[in-house]
Specification:
single chain; 2 helices
Amino acid sequence: MTSPEEAETEETVTCLHMTFYHPCQKEKLMFRCLNFCRQEQVRADELAKFGRDSNICRYNLMDSRVSRVQFSLQFYRKLNSSELCFEIKNMSKKTKLIVDHTELGYLNKIDLPQKCIICFGDYQILAEIEEGESMDCFHTFLHLAEVPVLQERCLPSLQPVPESGISYSSFPSQGKSPTESDENES
């Protein structure tokens, strides 16, 4: 039996949480081939492909309007760094992929932000990266959303309203930086 001091340190694994939404999911069941609420391990050297071709894609979307391969995710480590990241690449010739506010055409790729929304057609996917240390693999954890993830993420935050009744946050700042004032000044 080994003592706790001699035991190997357990390595944490990066986990990509993805929450899927489509307005017609209840009628068309396009996510029926995805394993929700179950963590899946993916080898670091594998491309995680999403699309309708089950022979090519690990994550199948059952919809004829989805490309055979819609997009792919590549797990990698940044040069001269221990930071582990994902790169997302649009594999569809017909449909643009939008990652937050960045539009990707065919074969365009960018680093996947820590938390972002991926959109194509009527599909919305909230992606959140839970950082880990392992360079051998990563995990995916898929969730199904009942409401649009854009609606969930873009709800206006409740800002306190000053006594004057005018909320300055509702007016565009037009590039001006905030200024400090003393309440005794006129």
